Amino acid sequence: MKGPMNGTLEFIDTGDIAMSNVVEHGGMTDVEWDPTGRYVTTAISYWSQKMDTGFIVWSFQGNVLYRNPVQMEKFCQLLWRPRPPSPLSKDDLQTIKKEMKKYQMVFEQEDRSIRSKASKELLEKRTKLMKEHSEYRKRREDLMRDRKRIFLEGREQCTLTLHVYAYHAPKVCVFIVEENVNIGFALQKVLSGNACPMFSCAS
Known about the structure:
Residues 3-77 form the Translation initiation factor beta propellor-like domain. GO terms for molecular function: RNA binding; translation initiation factor activity; translation initiation factor binding. Residues 119-146 form a coiled coil. Pfam families: eIF2A. This protein is of the alpha+beta class. The protein has helices at 90-98, 100-158, 183-191, and strands spanning 8-13, 18-24, 30-33, 39-44, 54-59, 64-67, 163-169, 172-178. Helix content is 38%, strand content 23%. Strand 7 (163-169) and strand 8 (172-178) form a beta hairpin. The termini are far apart. Mean pLDDT is 75; it is low at 1-5, 160-187 and 194-203.
């Protein structure tokens, strides 16, 4: 790690032998892969230099999973716990390696089933929410229509409309009054002579 590439990590996809990521950890002195091959750590050891000591945990794809937030004073070394021996025999391991594709297909099918189930549940949840929203909106619209109707009916009842019809007969004067609020008030108004001047009574 000395020279122009100091602190640079290149992650290679062994499937197609292509570089998947390039990252940097300036001044790093140690690199340690975990026993599973899924994680790798880079560290700056106090044994090699006194400044910026600490470590970073990366995924096998080169993504940062953990970085110590401050300098770890006198940090010397990070080691992974040794992987325990496998309970499988060598023959079992060989069988698994040979049938890996079959197991891979099974696992992929299970993953697709889980994703499909999750998508179905999400769709059902969204449909339920949309239905509840539509029902709530319909109730509010019905309520607004009822309130509008009551309001308009109230306005009509509060509007005073007076219609007076005079029928002339010998010594008889008949008044018919139509009014929406106070008939007594309208009659009093007519009989007191405050009605329209076009009406008269035969003597």
